[in-house]
Amino acid sequence: MQDATENFDVDLADLPKGEWLTRLAKATDKAGFFQPLGRKHFAALVRRSDTLLVTFETIQGIRALSDDAEPVGWPMVRAHGWSHLCVASDGDTWFRDRHVIGLFDRMIDDGFFDDFETILFYGAGPGGYAAAAFSVAAPGARVLAIQPQATLDPRVTEWDDRFVEMRRTDFTSRYGFAPDMLDASAAAYVVHDPAERLDAMHAALFARSGVSHFRMRNMGAALQSDLMDLEMLEPLMEQAMAGALTDLSFAQAYRARRTYPPYLRRVMAALDAAERTDLTYALARNVTSRIKAPRFQRRMAEIEAQRKLAAENSDAAEAEDVTGD
Predict the structure, then answer these.
(1) In this prediction, what percent of the chain has a pLDDT beyond 70?
(2) What Å distances lie between residue 128 and 72, 160, 196, 315, CA to CA?
(3) Distance between CA atoms of residues 225 and 9, nearest Å
(4) What is the pLDDT of residue 312?
(5) Cβ contact 203:214 at 8 Å
(6) 89 has which bridge partners?
(7) pLDDT tens-digit profile of 84-139?
(8) CB 159: neighbour CB atoms within 10 A?
(9) Are 81 and 73 in contact (CB under 8 A)?
(10) What domains appear along the chain, each with residue ranges and CATH number?
(11) With contact defined as beta carbons under 8 Å apart, do 146 and 199 qualify?
(12) DSSP count for the chain of H helices, then E strands
């Protein structure tokens, strides 16, 4: 293994896609390996220590979610000296490709994962599916899956109408049904928003021994982006890698949502939709007492005006009744 303190600085920001891919390939080929996997996928390894993070990402996500246009694991390479294997797709493929399957079959045959003491598989959405599904290649690994799908086999999840274009894709052969592939894992952590009905239904399929569920109610359908904005993702990876992610540690980290405007706006919208005006007012008052929040200030003023108008109308009605008597 290379020295964990060795610098790994590669400038990938603001590059055209072709040049970005070429530069990433050169950097990782020097630090570990770069391997194209057919036309739609590649694998890129940065080898540092006997701690390995395996991430499943899309090229589009890598380039959009990181200011440096780099895989999500590279900051962990620099901060902790971890090794990092990025398996990336061009678009959402759920990594159901014979070249990707072949890569993990070869890694099993070559004993690739035996070189590492601690392994964490990570992904979100389609990547979360892949992280769970391919983790079986490294028995004893841990898995952190953000709002993963369990399968898109219509015989199992025909209720999920978001990805109908994937229904002809084979989810029944090797590494197929993601929850089953977790049987060999040391621990798996599934994060989802229970208010997102279809995500919650997939998460329910992961309800089995050794799988911990962490719920982010009213956070929405883009949890990976929210976790990055909340600066929670890297601490969650660290805890998951160590097998130390618990209900308590997650709850402590998740307190960051109390000052996160997108979350607070979703909560207020949910309360308004349920016509829970008193709770909406209490929320708005609490938020405006802690942070600058013009939208919540306006909503509080609206409710106060409505209450004042309702009180005036009530007084007028009582006066009319008295006069009428």
Answers:
(1) 94
(2) 13, 16, 16, 58
(3) 23
(4) 74
(5) no
(6) 41, 58
(7) 999 999 999 999 999 999 999 999 999 999 999 999 999 999 999 999 999 999 99
(8) 10
(9) no
(10) 17-256 (3.40.50), 261-324 (no CATH)
(11) no
(12) 14, 8
Reported as a pLDDT band with limits 50, 70 and 90, residue 311 is: confident
Beta strand pairing call for 83-89 and 41-46: antiparallel
Nearest to 59 by CA among 75, 45, 42: 42
Residues listed for the chain: 325
Amino acid at 115: D
Q: Do residues 124 and 222 lie in contact, with contact meaning Cβ atoms separated by under 8 Å?
A: no
Over range 8-29, report the average pLDDT: 91
E strands present in the chain = 32-37, 41-46, 51-58, 83-89, 118-124, 142-146, 187-192, 211-215
Amino acid at 289: S
- CA 306 to centroid of chain Cα atoms: 40
- Contacts for 255 with CB less than 8 Å, ≥ 6 apart: none
